[in-house]
Design brief:
With 128 residues, the protein is mainly α. The protein contains 5 helices and no strands. The chain has one domain.
């Protein structure tokens, strides 16, 4: 279980940094706004997406958040990464910018799998 816990915290911390901290620090830069416009999304989409990313990353990293809310956060990030990959591919063609969200999705899946493995172990220790 110690290895699973380490894997969970490393993968979840990476998601927190990529999807919570970085958007919070960079979402209002001109480059970020231009990136949203370039993909054809309206100007309000960037701040809205940033708010959801910050909320979702906090839901994943904070231990006391209910598991149902964590499930919604994981699901939201799956949609986010898939849509980011598809949007970039449609607008710019297939390339690294299309693949990178899928790499982050793989990290998210490691977090998700290890989260459920830890939950199952915790449930086994609390059997009545």
């Amino acid at each position: 279980m110690k290895t699973t816990r380490i894997i969970f915290w490393i993968s979840t911390t990476l998601i927190f940094l990529f999807e919570g901290v970085m958007p919070a620090l960079t979402s209002q830069t001109e480059m970020a706004r231009e990136g949203i416009r370039h993909l054809g999304y309206p100007d309000y989409f960037g701040p809205m997406l940033t708010g959801f990313k910050i909320a979702g990353s906090l839901a994943l990293i904070l231990p006391k958040v209910p598991s149902r809310l964590k499930e919604w956060a994981y699901a939201g990030f799956v949609f986010d990464f898939l849509c980011a990959s598809i949007s970039t591919t449609v607008v710019d063609g297939f390339g690294f910018n299309s693949v990178f969200p899928l790499i982050v999705l793989a990290v998210l899946m490691v977090s998700y799998y290890s989260y459920h493995k830890l939950q199952a172990a915790e449930h086994r220790t609390h059997v009545y």
